[in-house]
Amino acid sequence: MMRTFFTFEISAGKNRDNRRRAAKAQGAKAIRQRGVEHREVSTEKGMPVETKNTNKPFKSKPVIPSVHQRKELLYAMAETGADWIMLKLGDVNTLPQLVGHIHRFGKKVMVHQDSIKGIARDKMGIQYMANCGVDCVITMKAPCVKYIKEAGMFAAFGFFVIDSDACRSGLANIKEQQPDVVILMPGTIPRQLVREIKSEATTPIILGGLMTTAEQIAGAMAIGVAAVATSNPDLWNLET
Question: Under a CB-based contact definition with an 8 Å cutoff, are residues 233 and 72 in contact?
């Protein structure tokens, strides 16, 4: 498996252009067909296929691997039971290729709007990610939630809970924009505060950032969060 993956990387010159053209063509088709729907990903040839799943709720296994390096990506794809991968590597040229790899392993792709180099943090950048087959986009910019949903992807609104003002502002944005999922950072914020946000937001909650132990993840799941995102590979197969 590892040999196949890196052989592809080495010989990717011509294949990258072919995949990029295929991604753009598939994205154009998606734009024509999308309406207000979410995507169900087919692993056939590693490309996304659009189907109508209007208002399908966000669901995830308890742990979402947060991946920063290619060797970690290979492990997350091939050796974990995760159904989502939070991708925090790549750039405008490699994103279609990376998304294709992940889809071939039967997993969905969650991308932070600010993590992929060379992609604008605006409506056009969001549409480009949809064209590449990304399943969920994380944004810190509340107005972008609308554009993400219009492009047929799950919209994840993330914010740092640094004080009471940030909490109030975040809740106001959640109620106004109605994202599909909310990511609270850091994941180590007081559990009582997570409970309060969860009760007011009525939206699936993911905790991310500084979640490094099994005890932290178990505690988070005990209060009803949808999932925990962690960059610690030792926790990616954790059963809670």
Answer: yes
Q: 139 φ, ψ to 5°?
A: -130, 145
Tens digits of residue pLDDT in 36-60: 333 443 333 334 434 333 468 999 9
What region does 119 belong to: left with phi over 0, alpha with psi -120 to 50, or beta? beta
Least confident of 8-12, 187-191, 236-240: 8-12
Please name which of 23, 118, 6, 154 lies closest in space to residue 73, comparing C-alpha atoms: 6
- Distances from the Cα of 157 to the Cαs of 64, 100, 144, 160, in angstroms? 16, 24, 9, 11
Query: How far is residue 5 from each of residues 45, 90, 125, 184, measured CA to CA in Å?
Result: 15, 15, 27, 33
Distance CA 180, CA 31 (A): 20
End-to-end CA distance of the chain: 28
User: How would DSSP label each residue in 79-95?
Assistant: H---SEEEE---BTTTH
- Answer whether residue 64 shows pLDDT above 80: yes
CB half-sphere exposure, 157, CA atoms < 13 A: 25
On whether the CB atoms of residues 119 and 128 are closer than 8 A, the answer is yes
Helix, strand, or coil (residue 1):
coil
Q: What is the pLDDT of residues 88-138, one digit of tens each?
A: 999 999 999 999 999 999 999 999 999 999 999 999 999 999 999 999 999
